[in-house]
Design goal:
The protein is α/β, with parallel strands linked by helices. It has a single domain, classed as Alpha-Beta Barrel (TIM Barrel). It has helices at residues 13-23, 33-38, 44-50, 55-62, 82-102, 118-131, 154-163, 193-208, 210-213, 228-245, 254-261, 272-282, 298-307, 312-326, and strands spanning 4-10, 67-72, 107-109, 137-139, 167-169, 219-221, 262-265, 287-288. Helix 5 (82-102) links the parallel strand 2 (67-72) and strand 3. Helix 5 runs parallel beside helix 6 and helix 6 packs parallel to helix 7. The chain binds manganese (II) ion. Manganese (II) ion binds next to strand 1. Residues 7, 9, 170, 267, 292, 295 line the site of manganese (II) ion.
Length: 331
């Protein structure tokens, strides 16, 4: 069976160096804690992220993983000033296209862009798809505490919809406005903050009504839906209350938008009850498999999906069929 892993992180030395340079400053942005620890050249994480020709392919071969859909590791370019962000996004996309060209049966990739400059972001998005033939886009959640419901980012949404390419909203640490209660006990990472941050992002987009303006926009979120599937019934119920109070602009229920415009991946969540629940609530055609390499290890993610108690038809969709369709990967 073909296995396409859809949330696999990569980076390159210039990107890692630019992040590492930010860590030399003394502000305690939560996003700088992890690279301060493990983003230095020579660390296992640095090596795992920056390798596309060696160990990564050997690990894929050992587990029969057919393909990694690569995305620039969090927080991508979103901590940089606009000029640096645009430059590094362009370089990232060139390097990614080169890695795919070297191993075209093993890699596909999501294009980076700099939301700090929406006009240049749109140009880079068009280049990423039309010239570099990448498969969609990666966004590492908030940009300076702002989310895609802000109208200044709508040209980015318009562009993604026109190109029919999904935007994968990957977590990063909470913004400075949201940071304080996540600062202790390791909560600033995927331990808890990541799903809180991305679910806030997704719900802002859903409740703003922007999907009525961009009805064909495709958004992908990881980690079994960042808790949204589990809460969607109550979201609909309370949405009705707020609709009565006149403080939500959208006319579609949260579940209607979520089931129409969102796809989820299993990245980092190798838990069969959660998978079965999401198949029941969303349908197997909305779910894609992912490992979250190199942050999580490959063998258990593969073994879990190989043997999860679901139908083989659903397994085919989740392992590769949906990814081929959503990310325009040749079957
Ligand atoms: Mn990830």
């Amino acid at each position: 069976m073909r296995r396409i892993a859809t949330e696999e992180a990569w980076s390159f030395p210039e990107h890692m160096a630019a992040i590492l340079a930010l860590t030399k400053s003394n502000f305690d942005d939560l996003d700088l804690r992890l690279p301060r620890r493990s983003g230095v050249p020579g660390s296992p994480l640095y090596n795992g992220l920056t390798d596309t020709d060696g160990e990564r392919l050997r690990i894929m071969d050992a587990d029969d993983v057919s393909m990694h859909l690569l995305s620039l590791t969090s927080p991508g370019v979103q901590m940089f000033d606009a000029d640096t962000a645009c430059e590094i996004a362009t370089l990232a996309n060139d390097r990614l296209a080169a890695a795919i060209a070297r191993h075209h049966t093993r890699y596909a990739g999501l294009g980076a862009f700099a939301p700090q400059d929406p006009k240049r972001a749109v140009k880079e998005m068009e280049r990423a798809i039309n010239t570099l033939k990448l498969n969609g886009f990666i966004l590492n959640s908030h940009t300076n505490g702002e989310y895609l419901d802000n109208p200044k980012y709508w040209p980015i949404l318009e562009c993604a919809e026109a190109l029919d390419r999904a935007i994968y909203i990957h977590p990063r640490c909470p913004s400075r406005d949201m940071a304080k209660p996540y600062g202790d006990y390791g909560m600033y990472t995927a331990l808890w903050a990541f799903q809180a941050e991305v679910s806030v992002h997704a719900m802002r987009m859903i409740l703003s009504g922007l999907f009525e303006r961009f009805p064909k926009l495709k958004i992908v979120i990881g980690h079994m839906g960042e808790s949204i599937p589990y809460n969607i019934w109550r979201c609909d119920y309370i949405y009705g209350v707020h609709k009565g109070w006149g403080d939500v602009p959208g006319n579609l229920k949260p579940s209607e938008v979520f089931k129409r415009n969102f796809w989820i991946t299993t990245s980092g969540v190798e838990h069969t009850p959660a998978l079965k629940y999401c198949i029941e609530v969303l349908g197997a055609d909305r779910i894609m498999w992912a490992i979250d390499y190199p942050y999580q290890v490959s063998p258990p993610a593969v073994a879990w999906m190989n043997s999860a108690e679901i139908s083989d038809a659903d397994r085919e969709l989740i392992f590769h069929g949906n990814a081929e369709q959503i990310f325009h990967i040749a079957p």
